[in-house]
Amino acid sequence: MNIQPNLLFDDDDDEILEFINYRRRPYTVRDRINHMIKWDDHDFLIRFRLSKVVVEQVLELITDNISVENQWNCAIAPIDKLLLTLRFYASGSFLITAGDFLGVSKSSACVIVRTVSTAIASLCHQFIRMPTTDEEVPGGHNAEYFRNRKGYFSLNVQTVVSPDLKIMDIVARWPGSCHDQTIFKNSNIYSQLVNGKWGNSLIVADSGYKNSSHIVTPFINPRGNIEELYNESIIRTRNPVERTYGVLKRRFPIVSLGLRLKLTTSQAIIVACSILHNIACDNNDLEAPDLIDVVLPPNEIINVNHEVIDEEGCARQQLIREYFSRL
Questions:
Q1: Concatenated DSSP letters for 127-165?
Q2: Which of 10, 42, 87, 244 has a 20 to 30 A CA-CA distance from 275?
Q3: Which helix (H) or strand (E) holds 203?
Q4: Are 154 and 146 in contact (CB under 8 A)?
Q5: Could you report the per-residue pLDDT of 50-77, keeping only the tens digit for each?
Q6: First and final CA of the chain: distance in angstroms?
Q7: pLDDT, tens only, 202-231
Q8: Residue 180 CB contacts under 8 Å (≥ 6 apart), including other chains
Q9: What distance in Å separates the CA atoms of residue 302 and residue 175, rounded to the nearest whole number?
Q10: With a threshold of 0.90, does the pTM exceed it?
């Protein structure tokens, strides 16, 4: 049998020739538009979901964390980094699309979104906080852990919302399979309520939580006029919560349409969007601009507690007995 040794090395030769003849793609710098000048206030708000005043305020807070030491090789300016990230939040689209909008590559867009989101999320203690005075107290390997009971992957985010639509507390680290009650029992808010930090204040929650001396929820199956009246009052009191979620999701559709990023980056984006929402509220910007060609999925309650015997000293029964029964 005749064997031609040279044939054994044909594949290696092809790889060597391919390496020798490889030509890198030319380095290009795309033109970058000054969006602060190009758009009027209305068009700017439509595209970035925040006014120019709010964007400038946020930029001032995070500039030191997102700036580079030099401006070599056409470095991306902090304002462009912030606007790219806001456009990504606003469109809920792919990184390559957000990059094209600002004239940068997909890899640059990925780094920018992560850096800016982390910088904004670091402002959490400044813009997301519970009341500190009496005047402020308002009436990979574990992937399946993140699959909620609806069958898709998610984070179960707990928030406490004030009557003026501001987010006072946020917990964005638990997987979608965790029950609301589990998250609450392991949160700082629960410890502070138990320790009496806010006196006899109550948190009005949905049916995903258990009634206690600090939490009140509606009756799933109200019996009689008194319980129906109580339910109506609870629903009216919780209305700012639903409004807040609606405004937040319309302002930043990315938190509703889904994130295709690393877990830590996704968590940073959720907190960052909440901080930006609070800053907008501080500037009396309580309504998000209308969405164009974007349909958001409806809100839904993933965890629902069936009716159980209330704990001893339950605030709901006390309200029924001492207030609603006398109306």
A1: HS----SGGG-----SGGGGB-TTSSB-EEEEEEE-TTS
A2: 42
A3: strand 203-204
A4: yes
A5: 999 999 999 999 999 999 877 666 788 9
A6: 105
A7: 999 988 888 888 899 998 888 889 999 999
A8: 156, 158, 205, 206, 208, 209, 303
A9: 12
A10: no
